[in-house]
């Protein structure tokens, strides 16, 4: 069974390392703030000028002026800092963000990502994604494996305008965890109840399957 948005975010949060400075993109990535493992400390950064985001607010914690780059209300942890977006982008462009999680429309076997524009459709724009794919040390893409029409988003070559080139090495979808290397997608984990055959059918780019593929764990 395909993972929910929340389950994808839970799996993404397992990638975080103690002490990481992390930027979370709009959409599924922002949900990962709710699932940071209890035994580590990370600092979540938003390009609109906040370092130290916490989980989504409860009704009692809601502050309409405290928002992330996607204009969603957030909380701030003890020790958080607020500053202007120029300083925030200086952090990103200077290589001070350890980890970023981005959504995408397409990713291909070369590690290219298309995430900002679909021809003839109204999209809000690139935001900080182009800076993040160039400045972050570790980049993970999270998205559904296929679009609403069932077309694969994991392609031999991206068809949409690119956000970044040869920059993606790991993808977490609603069906699988994959690594991008040697111009192929290497299957590492599968969602509970999802078969390798289903993942293969929904992956347009070359898929490499080595040995038994474990199911994702959310423990």
From TrEMBL:
Record has Transmembrane as a keyword: no
Record key words, sorted: Transferase
GO molecular function: CoA-transferase activity
Pfam families xrefs: CoA_trans (PF01144)
Domain of life, source organism: Bacteria
InterPro entries, sorted: 3-oxoacid_CoA-transf_B, CoA_trans_fam_I, CoA_transf_AS, NagB/RpiA_transferase-like
UniProt cross-references to NCBIfam families, sorted A to Z: pcaJ_scoB_fam
Family to which the UniProt record says this protein belongs: Belongs to the 3-oxoacid CoA-transferase subunit B family.
Full protein name: CoA transferase subunit B
